[in-house]
Amino acid sequence: MRSRPAPEPALLAAGADAWRQAGHGAIRGLTIGPIESALHPERGYGSDAFVRTLREAKSLGATWVSLTPFGRVYDLKSTGISLSFEAPFADNRRAVLRAVGQAHALGLRVLIVPHLWVETGGWRGELDPGSEAAWAEWTANYRAFLLTWAEVARDSRADMLAVGVELRSWLTSTHAKTFAPILHAVRRTYPGLLTYAGNWDDIEDTVILGDLDMIGLNAFFPLAEKDGATAEQLRAGGRLVRDRLAKFAEAWHKPIFFNELGYTTRANPAVRPWEWPDTMSHVVADQPAQAEAYRALLSAFIEEPWFAGFFVWRVYADPDDLSQEAEWGFSPRGKEAELVLRDAFAAHWASDGLNELGSALWRDKARGIGRF
To answer: Rounded to two decimals, what is the model's pTM?
Structure first.
């Protein structure tokens, strides 16, 4: 497949006006997970199989894709990060460079999200090297990890870069001050939009948001407290999430988007949407429940000019590979949820354009006047 050259990402003014200046409109995104294992050659990023997934995303109405290359961390006390994950880093780098070109050739924009995999289990948000010296070593190694992927984002002309994913123990603590020099180094390396994928329940405590262009979050908000919620109760839960985030956007004068938005294909997925399918067994797949959860949350945001869109979590680089997760997993591919997403992607969102009205509202809010 021949790739046409993508435009060089513009060096944008950092801050509240960067998204409007870029003129991308609302994100209609799909996260595509890697299949990098040497046991599955020619099925990961940059492969012909990956192009089939891109074409499916385009047919669905997506305008963006998110790529999630991983670094390997041994455990939650680690100070080091291995750039090789399932395959040597040089191979993964070439694959991501090619994948971005393939996406651009189809008219899709690309977000690169360098991710961390904890080898022994545990959540990356609880990483804690321990001593001050260990934290300093961790910080230096993370800087090298992120700048390596920032160079890939620059060289591939990716459209946006996330500087981290769910780093709660670091970026909501007194250690967060050590992240500012890393961000400044990333700015010198990569000229495009910068964001961070904070967790839904700690994003408001994250202290680096002032140095970002967009506030990204992993939106696994519960929409109900108990199983058996009706469609209207789920929609009411979506409106509560919207109202909470509207105040947050107003406080920061910055657009918000969902870096990850997903529901598993089971009963009551919106009660504890963060539950990972790999930890479940004997689950009965429930496609209507997954579809209704998507509908309930997305319907609350479509008229909000501060809401810059969303990435669906997730499908995989090889659309024919069914080994990556169980049938009750997050993937909406070939399920009723796909119809909801097709409608959502086709709809007009208030942040599209941003059109003259949306731009004026945004400028007024940045000056401290008017309402969203």
So the answer is: 0.91
